[in-house]
Amino acid sequence: MNHDNERSLSIRPEQRRTSSWDMFATWVGANANNGTWYIGGVLAACGFAAAMGVLLFSSALSYLFLSLIGFIGFKTGVSTMGISRASFGIRGSYLPSLINVTQFIGWTAVNTYIAATSVSYLMHDIAGWPLYGQPGGSKGMICGILVMSILHIISIASGSRSVQLIERIGIVLVFIFVLWESVVVFQSVSLHEIMSWHVPAKFKMNTGTAVDTVAAFNLAWVTAGADFTRFTKKKTTATVMPFVGALLGVVWFAFIGLVATISIAVASGGYDPNNSDPSTIASRLGLGILALIVIILTSMTANAVNLLAAGSALSNIFPRLKLKISLWIVAVLATIVTFVPMILGSFLDTFIVFLDYIGMVLGPIISIIVVDFYLRNRGHYHLDDLTKREGRYWYTNGVNWIAVLTWLAGAVIFFGLQHSEFLEKTVGATFITMVLSGVLYYYLMKLSYGGSKKDVN
């Protein structure tokens, strides 16, 4: 039984077919999308120079963890949530898995909402439907959400292979669209004007807040890293390609969102962070119907990855559930969640609350997994024990309570540090919380399992 379970948990060498190009395209496509564009628009509240500095610093640091998790996936052939069994315990891994399900469903909903806005604009241009926010405008948004949900179900119909196909098509469209928008932006406003623009005082975002915002956006991908790198044959494919692809995607597309948002503020003489979504920007830049269609298609590119990661995490909680069924379940749940901003009345406010949730719960989980593999276990796991009752990863009735308590402490630490005025204006709370969580986990585990068989793996 253990042998069969191990084989299903770990991808065998002959099953690994993902090339360096596929891995690069996956992570560029994951980040070169509507959500990243929107993040760039939100960062405009820092001003151009500060926004670019934060974007580069926070993204590079976040994706260092993506490479670290990516290597674990390559080394073990196990998904990220499967890997978490070693640190949280076989049953304890249900905690990070549940969090991963919720956050990737949330990201799917974010991208779906943005794309649904594009559908609303399309219906306005084609059929004269009122825009969302106008009387009767909800009709276009509801139509958009349902259309996008159907497209997402189609995109995941064949599992991981269809996701790979969507990525290959999507990345080409993304490159064309970004170049097109760049030309339009810099035809109307010069780079000097964009760099010289000053944020209205009432909308100014502090540097530390921006670091946390970008970190939350990027760390969300880290917990999906091994889900994809476990299908790779080479170490560089699993470590370098995710880092380079994800960093290129986020910096490039957030830059476009940033300069597009500022260019509109410069041209119109007014700035409103609520108008940073891609559909509104595309419409105000006069990019036309084709741009809205591309926004819809790039949403499918990002959400193919989101849904696969959510489905993989759900399968860790319910091992007998086939991946394709898991994908259908998370796709339906994401459709329901997409309606939340319409109920609450503000997409931006809902988005910021969602990012705070991600920053609070994901950082400690990533730290625990990384410290456990590289420092506690010296880069080696016993794969057969990842599915074995009473094995070295069973801990106490399947739960490593030290990992769970460290995660809770990390969430509390993040919440406390986030309200520090000094950190809010400087480096933010996310990465400090991750360091503290990692140190706490390492020493608590050393005190509890210092010389036991669970420590000598």
UniProtKB/TrEMBL annotation:
<protein>
    <submittedName>
        <fullName>Purine-cytosine permease</fullName>
    </submittedName>
</protein>
<feature type="transmembrane region" description="Helical">
    <location>
        <begin position="287"/>
        <end position="313"/>
    </location>
</feature>
<feature type="transmembrane region" description="Helical">
    <location>
        <begin position="136"/>
        <end position="157"/>
    </location>
</feature>
<feature type="transmembrane region" description="Helical">
    <location>
        <begin position="325"/>
        <end position="348"/>
    </location>
</feature>
<feature type="transmembrane region" description="Helical">
    <location>
        <begin position="209"/>
        <end position="228"/>
    </location>
</feature>
<keyword id="KW-0472">Membrane</keyword>
<feature type="transmembrane region" description="Helical">
    <location>
        <begin position="240"/>
        <end position="267"/>
    </location>
</feature>
<dbReference type="GO" id="GO:0015209">
    <property type="term" value="F:cytosine transmembrane transporter activity"/>
</dbReference>
<dbReference type="GO" id="GO:0005886">
    <property type="term" value="C:plasma membrane"/>
</dbReference>
<dbReference type="Pfam" id="PF02133">
    <property type="entry name" value="Transp_cyt_pur"/>
</dbReference>
<keyword id="KW-1133">Transmembrane helix</keyword>
<dbReference type="InterPro" id="IPR001248">
    <property type="entry name" value="Pur-cyt_permease"/>
</dbReference>
<keyword id="KW-0812">Transmembrane</keyword>
<feature type="transmembrane region" description="Helical">
    <location>
        <begin position="169"/>
        <end position="189"/>
    </location>
</feature>
<feature type="transmembrane region" description="Helical">
    <location>
        <begin position="427"/>
        <end position="444"/>
    </location>
</feature>
<keyword id="KW-0813">Transport</keyword>
<comment type="similarity">
    <text>Belongs to the purine-cytosine permease (2.A.39) family.</text>
</comment>
<feature type="transmembrane region" description="Helical">
    <location>
        <begin position="354"/>
        <end position="375"/>
    </location>
</feature>
<feature type="transmembrane region" description="Helical">
    <location>
        <begin position="37"/>
        <end position="57"/>
    </location>
</feature>
<dbReference type="InterPro" id="IPR030191">
    <property type="entry name" value="CodB"/>
</dbReference>
<dbReference type="InterPro" id="IPR026030">
    <property type="entry name" value="Pur-cyt_permease_Fcy2/21/22"/>
</dbReference>
<feature type="transmembrane region" description="Helical">
    <location>
        <begin position="395"/>
        <end position="415"/>
    </location>
</feature>
<feature type="transmembrane region" description="Helical">
    <location>
        <begin position="104"/>
        <end position="124"/>
    </location>
</feature>
<feature type="transmembrane region" description="Helical">
    <location>
        <begin position="63"/>
        <end position="83"/>
    </location>
</feature>
